[in-house]
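WARN no homologs supplied; continuing
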Amino acid sequence: MPNMRTALCSLLALASCPVSTVAAAPPSPPNVIVIMADDLGYGDTSVYGGWVKTPQLERMAAGGLTFTDFHSNSSVCSPTRAAFLTGRYQQRVGIVDVVARHLDTPGLDPSRPTLSSLLKAAGYRTALQGKWHLGREPEFNPVHHGFDEFRGYLGGYIDYHAHKNTWHNGLKVEDQEGYSTHLITANSVRFIEANREGPFFLLVAHEAVHLPFQTPEDTVENRKPVPEGERWKRERIRPKYRVMLEEMDKGVGEILDAVERCGIAGRTLVFFFSDNGAIGAASNGPLRGGKFSHYEGGHRVPAIAWWPGKIEAGRTTDATAMGMDLLPTVLDLAGVATPGDLEPDGLSMEGLLLAGGELPERELFFGYEPKLGTAMRHGDWKMIVKGDKVELYNLAEDLGETANLAEKHPERAARMAAAIARWKDQVRPGS
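OK structure emitted
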């Protein structure tokens, strides 16, 4: 039986080899996909008991970790995006308001390290599909912030259908015909399939569900004039908003499908969150306020982490986390050292995601000066200070922030107000 003898000899030879020659190769760094919704409220999706059925986000939640106390760094988009990409409070880079020529800085300084530039330097292929809003001028383009590929738009929003002069391919204005939500999804799926060998970092920055409230059916040809008095009516907007969210949810499913179809689910982290709370016809659930607000509805947002085989399925956490925590988290997961001069303000969530650990209690701040003042979280306590007005809430007892306890707890109020003053001094631009 020569074949059996040959096979036996091969096994014996393998057994006699030094361990180093047969040891498994070290695991490759994980792929990372961050899906960011725009103006999605805490109470919109069915994952959070909301009014719009979102089966693909439910799929993510059933297979991953759902956050009940996750926060965008701001209640408007540009500061949130700056904090997420740099891992630092947005005040340090001078982006407190939406990036526009008359507000704050004209864009995010390309010399600052970002999650995308650090991963690219570590051998990752990187892409941004969708919204940027961290500088319109060419010097602030995403390709100068570590993104190998950028397909999308530079400002705060565009027409979902007619974007001939606003859609970019890197530094070039290059239109793609179609509904922006569908384009962002299709470009993301293409990038995943082309880079399945990895590792890659993909930021899927949706326009949905930001205004203008346009569904796939609201093409330029199909639109009818809207009387000025009807434009912002809830009855008109709400059905469109529902469809817009449903289309984005379908896109989430297409991305998960692509990851599974490419056989890379076991080495791909997908993280979903919103850049701030909702406005208009949407819902922030039991929370007070919304976009442009320091109340919880402005910055407490839906967030889900999905990584089959790594993140325990169907788990929920009440850990207080923020968008700026994603940079140190991803760098830890990727095995990429944080540059000594970066000093992230965020904390790594690696233990929370993979081992069910906790995050240490810490002071967290939400500054939007001078419009909204400054807010602070410390455990269940929340303070908002603007000028001489001081508000203090216990969120464990009053999630809707209805009872101002500043006068009942003067010592706590004084400590938190002092902490806010120190923080504002520490995060001046350039710090």
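The radius of gyration is 23 Å.
OK
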